[in-house]
Known about the structure:
- It is a single-pass type II membrane protein.
- This is Cell division protein DivIB.
- By secondary structure, the chain is an alpha/beta fold.
- It is 34% helix and 26% strand.
- It is built from seven helices and twelve strands.
- It has helices at residues 13-40, 59-66, 79-86, 157-167, 171-174, 206-222, 242-249; strands at 48-52, 92-100, 104-111, 114-119, 125-129, 134-136, 148-149, 177-182, 191-196, 201-205, 226-230, 234-238.
- α4 crosses α6.
Amino acid sequence: xxxTRLPVLQEDKPKKKRSRKVTAILLLLFIALLxxxxxxxxxxxxxxxxxxxxxYSTPEELLRQSGLRKGGQFxxxxxxxxxxxxxxxxxxxxxxxxxxxxxxxxxQIKEFPAVAYEIxxxxxxxxxxSSGASVSIDESGIAVEKPILTGWKASDPYKAKLCGALAxxxxxxxxxxxxxxxxxxxxxxxxxxxxxxxHFEVTTAVSLLKDKVEYLNQVIETKEPGMITMLEADxxxxxxxxxxxxxxxx
Length: 250
């Protein structure tokens, strides 16, 4: 009797592969369904928007400029895009956006500092920022050591340059300046006149102010009130007192 070997049955591998593929497709469909449900739910929406550090910009203005809104997609918010949009405001120097899941967007604002004040045609006091922007303020926000700008047109390019120069000068070097008015000439189109609280009258130029202000303070600290010129050369002439005038008349 001969031995007959039966063939070994092979596993149905293709069926297993097909089964795994179907399982993977179902899993992906399930994940996609969960994603759709999640992004349509309130958990994926912006629920709170906080602006911090803003003094001269209203929350409404910041919201409008940033493009943020409650109910918007939380994960669609681009930090860099929002920050770039806010920097277009002439009051905002820096903006930092933080996202806190679920639904909270916090924006830290750093505004340009106030370097001077001016009174508008309606008699309202405005703060002039280092960017040259003019913003409304209340009386509680007034810093008495800042100068008042008088006679400046909003379109004057040297006004913005003056504000930028004032921002780079330490407060202690400008605290005695009470008023700054434009006084242009052909030689110095950016020439200005300063009036100090210690009763000095100063002639200089916007482009020279930063470099000359130390000389101004040296004269103020050591001399009697008078006229100071800080242009190509520096000079000081005291005001003529009544006694000197009487002696001259005699």
